[in-house]
């Protein structure tokens, strides 16, 4: 859902803030070739991709060990963490002092929590000593997202593409009904009703709008923002979404759609998105919102082409606000956060690894592989060649093996978009166009989370509780009895604010005003 917290810095600090690496780490990193190789452990997501090879023994891990491991007398060993359980798994590993030497997460608040509990190294000295190439590649702006209290406590990846959520509709169904692509909420409502009543795909169990439990891959796009009313910048930045003008009306509208059987009937039970994915890929779904590139993912694209070869999803911008804008949140310039747990004995070697990865030749190989095997060059753009076995990539452009970057990296945004689209589309020009159009639509009228430069201490304390409440509130409100909706909304929001929401909001206001005052 789009109720993401505003970016508030990441990482943390402790009494030993100047500490970089333990004596054991320095010894391991500087071992001579005659010594036994040092094992450097690195986290990798297990996304459960069908047919994936051993995540610790494939073309990419062999390249890493050949090109980085051997020259550094090291063996790089990958520790797989289920993508859908990454926070819970990471918490267990950190608590047991067993987290990989290089661990990562997309949750900046989680990194902050680890650092504040004295669980991470600060990295300034290591960056100066072993990370000059990394510093040059990321730049100060990206690195600033990994600082807390002036100290570097994590290494943010550079996000080359900033689109976040997208919305997609069956153009072939619209054409068969003689209806245009909707551009407003009202037009979308008419389309959803037509999908329900006329079933243009002639499928068993048509689903006008597919979604899943809150917090998973499926979202409500920028629907909620389209209901928000006029606010000052301070109100827009600091007010919890639940209290923003129009937010209640947004969920009331979703509740109406649910009661009219326009939304997946059992969406709240679909906590893994398997049902929504199956419905989309089986050709039963007319409209859905998810990540901007979701239709191109192999798990969706390939079965859909098999089950409904005429299906034609196109990106759509349909949630217009009171100003006539299609307001939508986009990503900040940083991607995931890599960090070195205090339990690591190989901090210096870990920084060398991240620095090595910032080499353009290394990044290119890890993202695109070998020409003629993993990709071909078309008009200077590398286009992926589908692979199986150990040459297969488990995430687009090997996202999980390229920790210093998120998205295609060819040094130019237009090329990056075209390259990423080609990588996702696997040679299908229609899907390539879908990706390019989706990126353009989903960066139009975009805004990023406000960067305060300091973490919100209340969010560190209450963030997990509020995040869990947030998901439950969304699901409950969408399925509530219409006569009970208004009272339930007020009750849940009060509970949310009392559970820490007010403390987070008050600190946002304080931090915002300090940032504005310092700019004057």
Proportion in helices: 40-55%
**What strand order characterises the main sheet?**
3-12-6-15
Name the poorly predicted regions.
1-30
How large is the share of residues in beta strands? Answer: 5-15%
Rg (C-alpha, Å): 23 Å
Helical/strand content category: alpha/beta
> Number of helical segments?
19
Mean pLDDT: 90
The biggest beta sheet is recorded as: 4 strands, mixed
Per DSSP E runs of 2 or more residues, the count of β-strands stands at: 16
Shape: globular
End-to-end separation in angstroms reads 35 Å
Would you write up a description of this structure?
This protein has 520 residues and is of the alpha/beta class. The protein has helices at residues 23-29, 59-69, 86-95, 108-116, 124-130, 132-144, 171-177, 185-198, 223-227, 233-238, 247-259, 274-281, 298-307, 347-357, 360-368, 413-425, 429-441, 457-479, 482-519, and strands at residues 38-46, 74-82, 103-105, 147-148, 151-152, 155-159, 165-170, 207-210, 285-291, 313-315, 328-329, 334-339, 375-378, 381-384, 405-406, 446-447. The strands form 6 sheets. The protein has a 4-stranded mixed sheet. It has a 4-stranded mixed sheet with strand order 8-9-7-10. A two-stranded parallel ribbon has the order 1-2. Mean pLDDT is 90; it is low at 1-30.
Descriptors:
4-stranded mixed β-sheet, 13% strand, 19 helices, 520 residues, 16 strands, disordered N terminus, single chain, alpha/beta, 44% helix
Describe the structure in brief:
By secondary structure, the chain is an alpha/beta fold. The protein has helices at 23-29, 59-69, 86-95, 108-116, 124-130, 132-144, 171-177, 185-198, 223-227, 233-238, 247-259, 274-281, 298-307, 347-357, 360-368, 413-425, 429-441, 457-479, 482-519, and strands at residues 38-46, 74-82, 103-105, 147-148, 151-152, 155-159, 165-170, 207-210, 285-291, 313-315, 328-329, 334-339, 375-378, 381-384, 405-406, 446-447.
């Amino acid at each position: 859902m789009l109720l993401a917290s505003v970016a508030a810095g990441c990482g943390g600090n402790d009494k030993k803030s100047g500490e970089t690496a333990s004596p054991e780490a320095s010894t391991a990193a500087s071992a001579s070739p005659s010594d036994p190789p040092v094992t450097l452990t690195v986290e990798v997501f297990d996304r459960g991709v069908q047919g994936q090879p051993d995540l610790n023994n494939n073309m990419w891990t062999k390249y890493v060990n050949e090109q980085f491991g051997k020259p550094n007398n090291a063996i790089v060993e990958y520790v797989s963490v289920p993508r859908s359980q990454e926070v819970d798994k990471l918490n267990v590993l950190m608590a047991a002092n067993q987290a990989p030497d290089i661990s990562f997460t997309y949750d900046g608040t989680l990194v902050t929590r680890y650092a504040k509990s004295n669980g991470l190294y600060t990295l300034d000295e290591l960056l100066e000593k072993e990370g000059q190439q990394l510093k040059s590649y990321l730049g100060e702006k990206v690195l600033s997202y990994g600082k807390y209290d002036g100290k570097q406590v994590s290494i943010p990846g550079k996000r080359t593409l900033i689109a976040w959520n997208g919305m997609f509709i069956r153009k072939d169904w619209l054409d068969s009904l003689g209806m245009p692509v909707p551009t407003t909420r009202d037009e979308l409502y008419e389309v959803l009703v037509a999908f329900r009543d006329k079933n243009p795909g002639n499928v068993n169990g048509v689903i006008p709008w597919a979604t899943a439990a809150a917090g998973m891959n499926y979202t409500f796009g920028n629907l909620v923002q389209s209901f928000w009313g006029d606010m000052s910048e301070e109100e827009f930045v600091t007010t919890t979404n639940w209290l923003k003008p129009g937010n209640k009306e947004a969920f009331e509208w979703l509740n109406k759609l649910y009661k009219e059987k326009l939304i997946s009937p059992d969406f709240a039970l679909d906590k893994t998105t398997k049902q929504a994915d199956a419905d989309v890929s089986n050709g039963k779904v007319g409209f859905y919102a998810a990540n901007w590139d979701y239709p191109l993912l192999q798990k969706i694209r390939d079965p859909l082409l098999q089950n409904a070869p005429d299906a034609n999803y196109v990106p759509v911008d349909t949630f217009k606000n009171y100003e006539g804008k299609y307001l939508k949140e986009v990503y900040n310039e940083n991607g995931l956060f890599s960090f070195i747990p205090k339990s690591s004995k190989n901090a210096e070697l870990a920084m060398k690894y991240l620095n090595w990865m910032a080499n353009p030749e290394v990044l290119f190989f890890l993202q695109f592989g070998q020409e003629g095997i993993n990709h071909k060059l078309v008009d200077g753009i590398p286009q992926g060649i589908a692979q199986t076995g150990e040459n297969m990539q488990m995430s687009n452009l090997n996202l999980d093996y390229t920790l210093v970057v998120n998205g295609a990296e060819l040094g130019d945004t237009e090329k990056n978009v075209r390259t990423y689209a080609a990588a996702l589309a696997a040679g299908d020009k229609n899907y390539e166009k879908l990706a390019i159009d989706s990126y353009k639509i989903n960066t139009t009228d975009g805004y990023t989370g406000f960067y305060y430069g300091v973490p919100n201490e209340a969010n560190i304390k209450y963030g997990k509780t509020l995040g869990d409440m947030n998901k439950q509130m969304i699901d409950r409100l969408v399925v509530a009895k219409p006569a009970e909706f208004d009272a339930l909304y007020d009750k849940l929001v009060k509970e949310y604010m009392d559970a820490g929401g007010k403390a987070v909001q008050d600190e946002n206001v304080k931090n915002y005003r300090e940032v504005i005052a310092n700019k004057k």
